[in-house]
Amino acid sequence: MKPKMKAMLESYVRAFVVAAGVAYSDGFKGTEEILIAGLIAIAGPAIRAINPKDPAFGVVADIVDAELNKLAKADKKKKAVKKK
After folding, report:
1. How far apart are CA 34 and CA 7, in angstroms?
2. Cα separation, 16 vs 37, whole angstroms
3. What are 14-51's pLDDT values in tens digits?
4. How many Å apart are CA 10 and CA 4, to the nearest integer?
5. How many angstroms separate the CA atoms of 26 and 45, rounded?
């Protein structure tokens, strides 16, 4: 699984678990009530996922990731030259 996809999935799961836990501790014992609370909580990460300018998951994240990869490769080449 790609790291970006894994981070998105973790975000959804965290939001769902926290909302379901809060709903349960607040006295909602029905499965349907807890599921609805969890699904509502997923709306936040879903909105981030469709926002192209979001720094974590949007287009900006792709650009930053590409630049960081270029810098890492350049650093590896620089270290390899120094070792010789």
Report:
1. 24
2. 8
3. 999 999 999 999 998 898 998 899 889 988 888 877 87
4. 10
5. 23
Q: What is the DSSP letter of 58?
A: S
Question: For the chain, where are the alpha helices, taking DSSP H only?
Answer: 3-25, 31-41, 43-50, 59-83
Residue 41 near residue 15 (C-beta atoms within 8 A): yes
CB contact burial 10-41 (16+ within 10 A = b; e otherwise): ebbeebbeebbeebeeeeeeeeeebeebbeeb
- The pair of structure tokens assigned to 25 is 């501790």
With vertex at residue 61, the alpha carbon angle to CA 76 and CA 58, rounded to the nearest 5 degrees, is 160
Domain boundaries, the chain: 1-50, 53-84
Q: How far is CA 62 from CA 33, 65, 72, in A?
A: 37, 5, 15
Torsion angles phi and psi, residue 27, rounded to 5: 110, 0
User: pTM of the predicted model, to two decimals?
Assistant: 0.58
Task: Match 């080449």 to its residue by tokens.
Answer: 77
